Amino acid sequence: MKRFLTLVAALSASLLFGFAQPFDVAANLQSHIEFLTSPTLEGRKAGSTGARMAAEYISNEFDAMGLKPFQRADFFHPFTTAFEDGVFRNVVGRIEGTARDRYIIIGAHYDHLGTDEGELYAGANDNASGTAALIELARLFTTMNYKPTHTLIFAAFDAEENGLHGSQDLADRFRTEEVKVMVNMDMVGLLGQGKLTIEGVGTLEGSEELLGEVASKAGIALKPVRFETSIMTATDTEAFAEKNIPTLSLSTGKDSAYHSPQDVASRIDYKGLASITQMLADAIVRIDQSEAVVASGKVARKHNSGTNNLLFGIAYSGGDNHHTYPGTALRGREAGAWNLGLSVLYTHKHFGFRTGATFERRKALTPMDTDDPFGPAQTISTGAVTVPVELMLKTKGNSCIYATIGCYYSRNLLAKQNKELCGLSHLGLSESEMGWQWSLGVRIAGFYIEGNNRYGLTPVYTSGPTIYNRTSYCTLGIYF
Ligand SMILES: [Zn+2]
To answer: Do residues 176 and 124 lie in contact, with contact meaning Cβ atoms separated by under 8 Å?
Structure first.
């Protein structure tokens, strides 16, 4: 029976793709994009009348081709957001699979930016292209009467441009283990002679090879990327990746017209978009049927929820250092400080542990004679290996705000007096130093910037008055 079913499935797949299409995909794509970008829809700003009309249009298309609604009596999934007024609507259809509670989700946002001072932001590539491809993809499956194993979800997302809200609403409706993959299309209309980028092939084992095959069959130059690495853009895959669901993000990239009034329908490569749509249909069939294509356990890096996450990075800190004289009103004058080194971060949900090793140079303007703090000053600088150990509190996600508190140990390796290299003991400097530190930082994907303060708790000199180091840094770092 199973073999028979496989045969039927294979046969329907070959029917689907081995024969000429029964309708003109490129022409349909063009008419969708021309409608979605028409002035009547006023740039499809989330919550606007134009966006409502776009949603009605998609719903009518889904209905006409025989898709079934998902979890609701109609195709609309209304939702609200915390910071914006109004009700937004995803448009979600499904083709029922033979397996229970197993899903493949295909999504594209249909909202765009609206108008600005009378100028229409048509959003042809961003993302009427993905929306049109979504509709035609569904039509390929319904026309050929394909019977999938997984239930295929076709989701047109609202409110992407103002914060990926639509995809978040849909993602909340699934449990991680129910979804084999979430495939998103955002800006897929500019293939031309270029490449189709698919980010996230590292999240789904076997997908890189599979996609390579269907792309070459479709004559599409493919650029597979294992994880999503761009920090400047966010896509509707994010909410799914946060749930550790494998994601594939398709895009032909953005050009100078991105988020400008020049993003119009006449610039779209309809033939290229039709190839992408057919290629994706082919890929979905194979992903649906293949038991070898499974979640790798890794998710697109920038979206990793960080539930269990070990990261290695390098960081540079620049700032200043001065001496403090506890119990007195004295405060040393600032001189430069910097450090460069490796950092290791382990995070679990809202907590983290960070350590590393840096080479650290700290200078301080100090009195020539430590017993005479008002006497003539000189620059004393040290070079040390410093090891910090810190606990972190952070907000959710890899892009987050965080605070750390911890301690550090520095082992001085060299010392300079007014740029002359001298021995530590010659200057009466301690061989090592311990202290505490805190920091506040922001991380965007793999990059972070933070303010960091160190307070020495052991004296700078082995004898004489007790003097401590006090250092402030601005740190720039990157995690791999
Ligand atoms: Zn977009």
So the answer is: no
The pLDDT score that the predictor gives to residue 339 is 95
219, two tokens: 């004559």
* Ligand 1 center from residue 161 Cα (angstroms): 7
List C-alpha distances in Å: 436 to 97, 364, 405, 454: 58, 19, 8, 6
Quote the ligand 1 centre to 132 CA distance (angstroms).
Answer: 13
**Quick count: other Cβ atoms within 10 Å of Cβ 431?**
12
CA of 259 to the centre of ligand 1 (A): 9
- Name the pLDDT band for 368 (thresholds 50, 70, 90): confident
Q: How confident is the model at residue 156 (pLDDT cuts 50, 70, 90)?
A: very high
Model confidence at 305: pLDDT above 50: no
Alpha-carbon distance of 198 to 194, in angstroms, equals 13
Decide if 247 contacts 303 (C-beta within 8 A). yes
Rounded CA separation 403/441 (Å): 6
CA distance 76 to 58: 10
User: How many residues in the chain?
Assistant: 480
Quickly tell me which residue has 């299409």 as its tokens. Answer: 21
Determine contact, residues 48/120, Cβ cutoff 8 Å. Answer: no
- Comparing 319 with 446, the larger pLDDT belongs to 319
Distance 84 CA to ligand 1 centre (A): 19
pTM of the predicted protein model = 0.67
CA of 43 to the centre of ligand 1 (A): 13
Distance CA 155, CA 281 (A): 15
What's the pLDDT at 427? 86
CA of 10 to the centre of ligand 1 (A): 34
375-412 per-position pLDDT tens digit: 788 888 999 999 999 999 998 777 889 999 999 999 99
Is 426:389 a contact under the CB 8 Å cutoff?
Answer: no
CATH numbers and ranges of domains, the chain: 2-303 (3.40.630.10), 309-479 (2.40.160.20)
CA of 290 to the centre of ligand 1 (A): 30
- Distance between CA atoms of 188 and 252, rounded to whole angstroms? 5
310: β partners: 346
Residue 228 CA to residue 208 CA, distance in Å, equals 14
> With bands split at pLDDT 50, 70 and 90, how would you rate the model's confidence at 65?
very high
Report d(CA 88, CA 111) in Å as an integer: 10
